[in-house]
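Exercise 7.
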Amino acid sequence: MKKDEIIKFINENPISYLATVDGNLPRVRAIKIYRANEDSIIFHTLNFKDLYKQLQRNPHIEMCFVDSEGKTQVRVNGKAKLIEDQELKEEIVEERNFLKPWIQEKGWDLLKVFKVTDAKATVWTMETNFQPKKYIKLYE
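Solution. The predicted structure, written as tokens, is:
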């Protein structure tokens, strides 16, 4: 896959298994990204969540996106960079209504938005399972 095909795959399969590090232990959770484009993958969390605390201590992540049939995986590793963009926060909350009551009660600082930087991706399929990994640079 080329970069544009990887971005398309991610947007078509927006649930990711996101791995972080907590001390010396791995932590993985499923998250739904907000979007992927030529510039970055965007995801969010809340400031009281373990995910946010882990990213503050160590921004290195890996994300695994899987198609609905389980035949293809795209793995992205990089760094999660906190971004302060009020317009983007408002867009996310408008799109994801379940966040509105939280924001109304706790304020905008509750919502933490990240973009993936310094990222490369590798594609896995059963057919390529035993071949050396090929990495595609996604983001600076």
